[in-house]
Amino acid sequence: MELVAGSYEQVLFGFTVRREPATSGDRETWTPVADFTHHAHTASLSAVAANSRFVVTGSKDETIHIYDMKKKIEHGALVHHSGTITCLKFYGSRHLISGAEDGLICVWDAKKWECLKSIKAHKGHVTFLSIHPSGKLALSVGTDKTLRTWNLVEGRSAFIKNIKQNAHIVEWSPSGEKYIVVVLNKVDVYQLDTAAVSGTITNGKRISAVTFLSDSILAVAGDEEVVRFFDCNSLVCLCEFKAHENRVKDILSFEIPDHHVLVTASNDGFIKMWALKQNKKDPPSLLCEVNTGARLTCLGVWLDRATDDKASLPPATEPSPEQPKTIKKEPGDMIQEEKTPGPKSKKSDVTGDSKEPAKGNNSPVSAKKRKMTGVLEKKRKKKM
């Protein structure tokens, strides 16, 4: 198990979590041990995602970096997007979906690291996306004040809903029977069968991150020190607890045998792991914490599992022999190709050689050189 967190300081931190069995009268101890720091990006990190093999990071420097966690090496970078990478989501072991300020959603083959599809998803920025548990649908929100549903089986837009303000988070529940949309400090709960709002949750301050603890219970973090658990059916706050000394930037949860764990990261530099109680009205207990000394922005957990439960997205996401990396626009489809030279003129595939992440605070000089070369190449192409 490895905690990974990105920061404003452009550094990716990795911590291996060691679990010591309980001794007589004591409980099991969890200890995070520094594994690596890596300084590959030239701007602050904005997104992290992990599957059973890889960790990927997105940044304001417009690139996505790939790390092979099995071999502990850097696997290269993806440079298809222009603008900040705003969201990264793995679906199983085979696909990665990315969104960025260029309005594009890209589907990547997570084996060959080829861009299978590039969808002009929003007129403004893509601010967040979420994949349905079935892999057949995806939701995205953007600065064009729309919530868009994507049919991944047919590879086209299925539904567009105008919303009054710019939403910055969208998330499916574990069962996929409901989803939530976050605008500022409010969470609108939607039912899939009606596509209508069944209720609204109001948090204390602007919401920075959410994660479902169960199909009806949502953990909410915002621009404050506390984390709150809300019931999506009754809309009431079940409990709240002080998690950090500064605003909480990201949270996530996962289940392993005998444990349901919540992880939080904050601007105060700490990553904390919490053991959730069966009754979510009870605050969780702290398992362990580590101080990175940096202002954290995003968080991920890599679990060393043999395979993912979800193998891949539906076949429609596979490239056709005629058009290996783009979608042909069919009558009535909402998917559009870029008409101006831009993201498509950039190399979509993985770039760079594999390099080991640096132990300690020093990053490989060769990685920096590759990075700067990629940035200069992008600038040159933009001018053209």
From TrEMBL:
Q: Per its UniProt record, what InterPro entries does this chain match?
A: PAK1-Kinase_Regulator, WD40/YVTN_repeat-like_dom_sf, WD40_repeat_CS, WD40_repeat_dom_sf, WD40_rpt
Q: Which residue ranges have biased composition labelled Basic residues?
A: 367-384
Task: State any GO CC term.
Answer: nucleolus
| Full protein name | p21-activated protein kinase-interacting protein 1
Compartments (UniProt record):
Nucleus, Nucleolus
A GO BP term, please?
Answer: regulation of signal transduction by p53 class mediator
Name the predominant localization: nucleus
Write out the ranges of the annotated region (Disordered): 309-384
Q: Where is the composition biased (Basic and acidic residues)?
A: 325-358
- Record's keyword annotation contains Transport: no
Q: How does it assemble?
A: Interacts with PAK1.
Q: What does the function comment of this entry state?
A: Negatively regulates the PAK1 kinase. PAK1 is a member of the PAK kinase family, which has been shown to play a positive role in the regulation of signaling pathways involving MAPK8 and RELA. PAK1 exists as an inactive homodimer, which is activated by binding of small GTPases such as CDC42 to an N-terminal regulatory domain. PAK1IP1 also binds to the N-terminus of PAK1, and inhibits the specific activation of PAK1 by CDC42. May be involved in ribosomal large subunit assembly.
UniProt KW keywords:
Nucleus, Repeat, Ribosome biogenesis, Signal transduction inhibitor, WD repeat
Taxonomically, which superkingdom?
Eukaryota
Which Pfam families does UniProt cross-reference here? WD40
